[in-house]
Amino acid sequence: MRTRLKTALLALLLAGTCAAHAGDDALYRALGDQAGVASLMTDFVTRLKRDTRTENFFRQTRVDGLAEALTDQVCVLAGGPCKYEGATMAKAHADLAIGRADFNALVEVLQDTMDERGIPFATQNRLLALLAPMHRDIVTR
Ligand code: HEM
């Protein structure tokens, strides 16, 4: 009986946690909602085009187009009220021969961008933690 009670309590606790997460837009709000995310992503893509480690990948890229796709994607990930309608990460990066060092360089550029904008460390880490697992679909060599 005790074990069953504990199991039931645990189930309730987990259900509560999930429910809280389902509508959790704390990260989205911490990033400054739509305007904050959009301006962060424009800044980020502009830097990716300039950084010597990433510029070759983004030579043909239009800042507005990629920033818009990233804004939708980050908004969704951060719990915001958006829809991402771009390609899957595997498809978007399939032909780019991206290595682990390229992935790390992009993450560093994002960190620098967030640092310069004064985004708190905890907020930065929450976003990076959501992006990090994507390396499985993006790094192909
Ligand atoms: C977590 C990491 C990353 C995320 C979230 C991400 C996200 C995206 C998104 C949303 C798109 C647009 C897809 C579409 O338009 O349908 C895209 C395109 C692209 N990504 Fe990534 N990406 C990541 C890592 C990288 C890395 C490491 C590189 C190379 C160093 C890279 C290079 C590119 C390029 C060249 C494009 C095409 C841009 C264009 O349209 O000109 N990405 N990425």
Short description:
This protein has 141 residues and is mainly alpha-helical. The chain is built from 8 helices and no strands. It has one domain (24-138): Globins (Globin-like, Orthogonal Bundle).
Please give a structural write-up.
With 141 residues, the protein is mainly alpha-helical. It has a single domain (24-138), classed as Globins (Globin-like), CATH 1.10.490. The protein contains eight helices and no strands. It has helices at residues 2-22, 26-30, 33-50, 63-77, 89-93, 100-116, 121-131, 135-138. The radius of gyration is 18 Å and the shape is globular. Mean pLDDT is 90; it is low at 5-20. Residues 54, 57-58, 60-61, 65-66, 69-70, 73, 86-87, 92-93, 96, 98, 102-103, 106, 131, 134, 138 line the site of protoporphyrin IX containing FE. Protoporphyrin IX containing FE (HEM) is lined by residues 54, 57-58, 60-61, 65-66, 69-70, 73, 86-87, 92-93, 96, 98, 102-103, 106, 131, 134, 138.
Ordered list of secondary-structure elements with their pairings:
Layout: H1 2-22, H2 26-30, H3 33-50, H4 63-77, H5 89-93, H6 100-116, H7 121-131, H8 135-138
Helix pairs in contact: 3-4, 3-6
The structure holds protoporphyrin IX containing FE.
| Beta content | under 5%
Q: Which structural class fits the helix and strand makeup?
A: mainly alpha
Largest sheet: none
* Number of helical elements: 8
The CATH topology corresponds to Globin-like
| Ligands present | protoporphyrin IX containing FE
* Count of the domains: 1
CATH architecture assignment = Orthogonal Bundle
Query: How many runs of DSSP E, i.e. beta strands?
Result: 0
Q: Regarding CATH, which class?
A: Mainly Alpha
